[in-house]
Amino acid sequence: MEFTLRVWRQRDRNDPGRLVTYKATDVNPDMSFLEMLDVLNQQLVARGEEPIAFAHDCREGICGSCGFVINGRAHGPGRGTAVCQLHMRSFKNGETLTLEPWRAKAFPVIRDLVVDRRALDRIIQAGGYITVNTGSAPEANTIPVPKPNADKAFDAAQCIQCGACVAACPNASAMLFVASKVSHLGLLPQGQPERDTRVLRMVAAHDREGFGNCTFYGECEAVCPKEISIGFISRLNRDYLAASRRARGALADKKEDAA
Amino acid sequence: MSVAVTGTPVSLDAKVPGGPIEKKWDNRLFELKLVNPANRRKYTVIVVGTGLAGASAAATLGELGYRVKAVTYHDSPRRAHSIAAQGGINAAKNYRNDGDSVWRLFYDTIKGGDFRSREANVFRLAQLSVRIIDQAVAQGVPFAREYGGLLDNRSFGGAQVSRTFYARGQTGQQLLLGAYQALMRQVDAGTVELITFTEMLDLVVVDGRARGIIARNLLTGEMSSIVGDAVVLATGGYGNVYDLSTIARQSNATAIWRAHRRGALFANPCFTQIHPTCIPVSGDYQSKLTLMSESLRNDGRVWVPKRKGDTRPPNEIPEEERDYYLERKYPSFGNLAPRDIASRAAKEVCDEGRGVGPGGRGVYLDFSDAIKRLGTEVIRQRYGNLFDMYERITDENPYKVPMRIYPAIHYTMGGLWVDYNLMSTIPGLFVAGEANFSDHGANRLGASALMQGLADGYFIIPPVVADYLARTRLEKVDPSHPAFTAARLEVEERTRRLLGVKGSRTPESFHRELGKLMWDYCGMSRNEQGLKKALAQIPVLRQDYWKQVKVLGDDASLNQSLEKALRVADFLELAELIVTDALHRTESCGGHFREESQTADGEAKRDDANFAYVAAWQFTGVGTPEVLHKEPLRFEFVELAERSYK
Amino acid sequence: MLPKSTVGKKIVMAVTGLILVGFVIVHMAGNMKIYAGRESFNAYALALREFGADFLGYSGALWIARVVLLVAVVLHIASAYQLTRHSRAARPVRYVQAKAPDNYAARTMRWGGVILLLFIIYHLLHFTFGAVGYAPGQFVPMDVYSNVVTGFRVWYVSLFYILAMVALGFHLSHGVSSMLRTLGVEARRTERALNALGPIVAAIVVAGNISVPLAVMTGLIG
Ligand SMILES: Cc1cc2nc3c(=O)[nH]c(=O)nc-3n(C[C@H](O)[C@H](O)[C@H](O)COP(=O)(O)OP(=O)(O)OC[C@H]3O[C@@H](n4cnc5c(N)ncnc54)[C@H](O)[C@@H]3O)c2cc1C
Ligand code: HEM
Ligand code: HEM
Ligand code: SF4
Ligand code: F3S
Ligand code: FES
Q1: Phi, psi of B501 (to 5 degrees)
Q2: Which of A218, B47, B289, B295 is 20 to 30 Å from the Cα of B367, by its Cα?
Q3: Cα(B179)–Cα(B206) distance, integer angstroms
Q4: What is the number of alpha carbons within 13 Å of residue B242 lying toward its C-beta?
Q5: What is the pLDDT of residues A57-103, one digit of tens each?
Q6: With contact defined as beta carbons under 8 Å apart, do B166 and B87 qualify?
Q7: How far apart are CA A28 and CA A31, in angstroms?
Q8: For residues B131 and B89, is the Cβ–Cβ distance under 8 A?
Q9: How far is CA B72 from CA A13, B159, B234, in A?
Q10: pTM (2 d.p.)
Q11: Residues lining ligand 1, Cβ inside 6 A
């Protein structure tokens, strides 16, 4: 197979960047997209051109390192597929493919197709955990978790923190990501004590990082490699509503105590 | 340990505590010195690597109040290779009431490791296994559950009990997220400083003690000296020496190799694990081999056609013309025979010309019986994501056609030598997770690496590091110390040299060549002739590398070619040691199969009289022979027996 | 005044949206009374003003409703404005090759909202104050029936109403589902069911409302 690639090249944050056109020839349909780029990069280096930078590691769709936009679609045309798991057989021979990095203020471009997604870690840092020091855990089977809840928590927990939801969202919102963590922990009995503070703090961190707000376009869900449902965003909103009500109640109680 | 400096072979002392085996860890805990909570904040511990072992260690040390610097080359701790572990984690909970116990897990692991691991370590691992599950559940790890709401288990290779806890096919992911979240909590609390996009390129030893690292910021190329009171390496395995493997592409050996060059002994480097169930190679562009979790062997049956060169599609081969060779050869374990054995058996049938798929390098893993018995839905629930992954890669539907699988490099049992306290031969340098050699002997059982990484990180590293800090008087050191400046200059010189060669071949092409050489001569089965050939070729390749490598770009921004070049340079040195070790160990054991040492029916033949020891190698210079030290293995609680799965 | 977080603002938008949606539905139902004839339609307009007059005075209840609506519209627009700005800023560099979102209605929310605002202003000046769209003396306070009929006899006024209703349709067809999600309603089985709800509500409201100018122009009423 043969493709014309228009690839975003940008040296660093200060470089304005541009699309550069390359030809990919002799592409085997069983190659993964990243393998196609590997081969192209080898050719570029042979010609003395710097290879195209793209992030990757596991190449199994689980580490969340990879990701760029192919023809306007985050992670390309596959459903429930990270770009490392996308194979060239998903494309038509001779197609022109435009590759761009995730675009969001919160994801500055590092180089070419690599962006800095550490904003997502800072959101987790703000409350995406259960407070339990090592050693203090009770016997694992002390608290049964109804299977449907456990399964649903797992569905949410699958998020690989790739950032495709942000890339695809017309508002550059990371709400699907935040919702997945809030729901994962909020669905388990272990996550209840911090349920309120977690959602309030994580949403605040999300906004602080400069992600947009969710207006339910649903684009995120369509590109999410783990097919995480926007139903979890509804859940997040519900938790948020309940939490802010209780937080206000708590505040009032405190005032009363003080009086 | 001063032995390492002299270069004369000695017998290594692992400092195993006294007492009966089930009391050893308790005894050790009691002997360990503590650091007063108020003083902990005065100590800085550098943790390199944020996979299961590193993240759990860093989080726990942070909780205890130490100042922790957690370093990773990833942008986020959660990208570590551990994230990819699929099948599960063992623990001796005996929830199934099927006769499991700490003792049995201990015994299975020792036997699985072909009696080449240290008893006391393995016992401690089995003991701690139960607490790991408690910890993970409390963190919100969504393990699979039964309808009653309690935890579910499945079986894994090398065991006849169901003791594997799992979260669909994403157990490593969920466990790592638990540790990652605990770590991020400490980052928020200010006890852990997370240093991302930063790769350790050297270890700094001051007055014989590990005091810090030299690390390169991958985004700016800036070289920094990070100073601490102790260093924990949790940088994972070195399987990527082989290039094509199931291991994440960025995983590399630089951290442990550089520590080795600074004096840490490297133990059992030739103990590499080849996993029997991976998707076969499809072309020479291939970058990565994908594992199909071993858990699939719970329900899948492995077979090849009885006849050589049978090219009929699998569904047209009648039952009586199929050879379910694992069930035939190992009736009591059948398809759940341990990895080394299943891998070799696959190689054997393919070597006989009965392999299937392109190039005849593959065997079938067939689910049709299980689907008939349990229905598609049950199979989908158990393995859905693996089946999807398989279909995505191969474009074949495993619900209808049997999977094709072939062995691939997967794990490295070898690693830096550590004593019972996980301390290497450099005082103050601790090693955790796959990076150390500790618990798996010559072969690791499935679902035991996650267990080991977390036991190391959550439960062992924190008290032993405390003990070291409490017992040691450490001078104040800062980055201007001559040892730091010297190490830093060396590293800068190394990067400059790589950029300066301006040759004609990419680091990738060297890596590929090295990988092929290692796979051919030091892969699933090894012989003297092949190993010697490899030993002759590797130094040549290494010299070529420094003359011909081509690394474009500069050292002031993200430069992935340079990262790769630095890693491949170290692989080229490590490879030689792996082969040296393989050549010296003329017995077969576990993942190390020497063709010269086999039984009449082709099974591995151990040589306990001569090789019941850990081989720990000491670096003496690039290209000069390493010095072999030995840690004799004594088996007080299990009997050295022939390892049979028949 | 508005909450600080994006989710908080969005909730304000949803709550005010809920009030507005409630109003539009009731208003549409009220409009249907026009088919019952002049007397009953005018009586309905009067009833609205006399409702609770004993306690609140003539038009009292109506004024309360007006204030609620006005506050709702103001808050709705204020949050919409702030969130839109926030989201615009979240993507300073656009894609060279962008893909249009699949959800067309969702894309029209912002401009659609502006059209609605303009429509509301015009609509008030028109049917409530009689300030536009009538020849002098044509507008008769409290003869709502003839005001509507005379008003819609002008074809371009009717056309504008119809177009505005199309805009309303889009706004509701995304807005209703979005609002429910914002308020925490989670689809039990599939998101598709929730997605369908918006268009259904929108279709009912729009069909009812559009029927009025159409009925006038086709002479069905008048
Ligand atoms: C496909 C696959 C499936 C597996 N499934 C299972 C399973 O089901 N059960 C099981 O028990 N085991 C499984 N394993 C094995 C297991 O996943 C690993 O052995 C284990 O996760 C290793 O964890 P670790 O913490 O030691 O290292 P890793 O997870 O490899 O982490 C290494 C860390 O070190 C960092 N690092 C490395 N070098 C440097 C450096 N120079 N500078 C800075 N940072 C550095 C990396 O960034 C990373 O954070 C599987 C392995 C593979 C490949
Ligand atoms: C008066 C009639 C109006 C009604 C019935 C209405 C209703 C709604 C509803 C129900 C929502 C969804 C809230 C949510 O997403 O949770 C919404 C969203 C919105 N409205 Fe309105 N609105 C009206 C007027 C306006 C006006 C006048 C504007 C702006 C000038 C506006 C702008 C918006 C915007 C920008 C959104 C967010 C888009 C989105 O959620 O996708 N609306 N509106
Ligand atoms: C074709 C459809 C519509 C018709 C025929 C119609 C008709 C009317 C009439 C006759 C009145 C005057 C009632 C009175 O003075 O007693 C009125 C008032 C009003 N209408 Fe509509 N309307 C329509 C659509 C809408 C829509 C879509 C909205 C909102 C988005 C709206 C908002 C209002 C408001 C706010 C008032 C003023 C109520 C008051 O304060 O008295 N109308 N409408
Ligand atoms: S929610 Fe989906 S798209 Fe978003 S970061 Fe997680 S896995 Fe990626
Ligand atoms: S695309 Fe964006 S608007 Fe919400 S539903 Fe997804 S985050
Ligand atoms: S490379 Fe890990 S998800 Fe794609």
Answers
A1: -60, -45
A2: B289
A3: 31
A4: 29
A5: 999 999 999 999 999 999 999 999 999 999 999 999 999 999 999 99
A6: yes
A7: 5
A8: no
A9: 22, 35, 10
A10: 0.96
A11: B 48-54, 71-74, 80-82, 84-89, 171-172, 199-200, 234-237, 246-247, 251, 254-255, 291, 410-411, 433-435, 447-450, 453
